[in-house]
């Protein structure tokens, strides 16, 4: 049994959901672990992770619109130091995931056929995001 | 230290939340690991996992109703290839969990007295669901 | 590779979000593991865990208010055995997290600069809460 730690650096092209499955799969494949457990943790509070439908752009757009309805930009927030998209970014992060745990077999994540891993960039102005990665296995 | 990987196959009797604690506990008990970490990941994007109140049917019904209010069937979704319950199923999956990490001791999950593990079937027409299971420990 | 299991006992001073980062970091530091994986699972269904903004009290208040809007106290719940804050406490737990997985390096959690770990106490009358902790590494 052994372990590997790393950091994935990703920058979204714009606000919204962006597939990063290939980047994660590449990192996992490079560690030489056949069976094990992958952990991902985004090191930010205004961006997040999500496992969701990987094929239909319409599903992605519906999801983005729904997040915007549930956690809308509003004048009612007390915390707006960095603009009107500041607090909604935190709330949309809460609705999605900060940490993910993914079983690995034959050197690959055991995702279902329709599952992809998304970086959710909740700020209007994207910036570089760090995802801490940890793989444990044999 | 050693690990075990498996797949739990479950089919919900109908749309909604269904306790699968016993099936998960049975799989864990069969691996002969005393202390360790259990990871569950559902391999679908229109069904999900949840740890919640295991005793009161009324709490389960309130939870189902609340999910239906927060992520309602609506004509406003662009993605409706598989019917009006398609996109809400994805959203209700986002609100709940795709992966769970559960510490194990004495061969048993360390769930609290009132905690149960639910399969959340968000489609009206249930189908067979795969849950990837991984147990690491000694 | 080795592992450690423990229980963190925490009581919130009042309903809402309370930082417990230091208590968790202390437990991790005491296990003598340099690199590894920390898992936290709260053993309750009316309190939860969350990784979010650790610095701005206004962000914390906005988050508490938003949870109260999305999962409000209401007369419409069937399950109210323990009062009007009973069912909303379960729903706010669903919106946040029951389990967290956090990579560890150099004996410290790899949290980002602005990330803190919160105990979310959703009942009006706080009680002692148990958080199962598991650390695996070397």
Automatic annotation (TrEMBL), chains A, B, C:
<dbReference type="InterPro" id="IPR001602">
    <property type="entry name" value="UPF0047_YjbQ-like"/>
</dbReference>
<protein>
    <submittedName>
        <fullName>Secondary thiamine-phosphate synthase enzyme YjbQ</fullName>
    </submittedName>
</protein>
<comment type="similarity">
    <text>Belongs to the UPF0047 family.</text>
</comment>
<dbReference type="InterPro" id="IPR035917">
    <property type="entry name" value="YjbQ-like_sf"/>
</dbReference>
<dbReference type="Pfam" id="PF01894">
    <property type="entry name" value="YjbQ"/>
</dbReference>
């Amino acid at each position: 049994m052994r372990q590997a730690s790393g950091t994935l650096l990703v920058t979204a092209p714009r606000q919204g959901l962006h597939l990063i499955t290939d980047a994660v799969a590449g990192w996992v494949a490079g560690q030489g672990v056949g069976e094990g457990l992958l952990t991902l943790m985004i090191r930010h509070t205004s961006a997040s992770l999500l496992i969701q439908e990987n094929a239909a752009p319409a599903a992605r757009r519906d999801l983005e619109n729904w997040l915007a309805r549930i956690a809308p930009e509003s004048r009612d927030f007390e915390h707006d130091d960095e603009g009107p998209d500041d607090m909604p970014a935190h709330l949309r992060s809460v609705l999605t995931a900060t940490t993910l745990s993914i079983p690995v077999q034959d050197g690959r994540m055991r995702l279902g056929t329709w599952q992809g891993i998304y970086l959710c960039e909740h700020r209007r102005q994207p910036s570089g995001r760090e995802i801490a990665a940890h793989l444990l296995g044999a």
